[in-house]
């Protein structure tokens, strides 16, 4: 494993900066206090909040390279920043699989699918398309023109369809990758939503449900062996953990403490492990064990209110942190020479931008996301 004082200091300071900002905004009641019906899964919200800022930590140093800057010593912070990025995405996938299969279990597969897909569209689309408008505004300001050709139309089509239509993601020669390099995960989310009715049907069929789950695990093993980046098994992890959680095992305090400690151990190993592929089978095991322990043990350290606050705004953080990073670096670049920044100076800038991301995400949650949510 690889840990240095500097990489740990950078990562921890960014997370603390975000948590302190969340605590301040929470005391100001900037966003509504949402009452969730499944309070026994409070640790899920805390995990979601951390996952969102793990992705921020991932993109903080790589943003310079994506924007075309060459800053020696800044573009790489060691393995921890890359590991946390993939770890955050994997936890998001596990949470998705868990929450929706948990719902299927509780209603015995009898979901109102029209209402389900309407709620998913209302939850995901408004903010996503708002952020796409931000992309177009940045392109227009950068190029001062919008001469649209067929390649640009293909990119716009790709944005409208959440990335399902493959394109170069360029408009007028402007590469959108520094702004939207996270949207590839939405494709996997929508694919899971599309197959969820089949999963529900399989679950209700007691004769074939368990054998098909075993087959899915076998396919996952083969896929990890033959594919470079494998994402769908993380939804499978969520499904398996949902099944275990609904068995209502009466775990002793000692077992829960041991599971909480195991979750922390998995996190430490994941953060410092040196692997070329963040979606390798070994990472899948670490992420899956971490997620299972967090849900089943429900450790107290995941109930920290600022973490749960970040969990509420995590979708906004996920989509908006890249535009905020991009615009912030552009603005700072008008006053200082970005290429001459030292690692410590750039680190300080990233710590200062983190509260901006939390504030902007809080506002987008309150005025965009929350308007379309139907949580009681």
Description:
It holds the Pfam family Acyl_transf_3. It is a single chain. This protein has 376 residues and is mostly helical. It has one domain. It is built from 14 helices and two strands. The chain has a two-stranded antiparallel ribbon with strand order 1-2. Strand 1 and strand 2 form a beta hairpin. Helix 10 packs antiparallel against helix 11. The longest helix is centred in the middle third of the chain and has 31 residues. It is globular, with a radius of gyration of 21 Å. The N and C termini lie far apart (45 Å).
Average pLDDT works out at 88
Q: Please report the number of helical segments.
A: 14
Strand composition percent: under 5%
The quaternary organization reads as single chain
Domain Acyltransferase: 43-363
Protein name: Acyltransferase
Organism: Serratia rhizosphaerae
Keywords: Acyltransferase, Membrane, Transferase, Transmembrane, Transmembrane helix
Summarize the structure.
This is Acyltransferase. This protein has 14 helices and two strands.
Key features of this structure:
2 strands, globular, mainly alpha, 376 residues, 14 helices, 1% strand
SSE order and pairing:
Elements: H1 5-27, H2 42-66, H3 79-106, H4 113-143, H5 150-160, E1 170-171, E2 174-175, H6 177-180, H7 184-204, H8 209-226, H9 233-245, H10 253-272, H11 281-297, H12 305-312, H13 314-333, H14 343-369
Helix pairs in contact: 1-2, 1-12, 1-14, 2-3, 2-12, 2-13, 3-7, 3-9, 3-11, 4-13, 4-14, 9-11, 10-11, 13-14
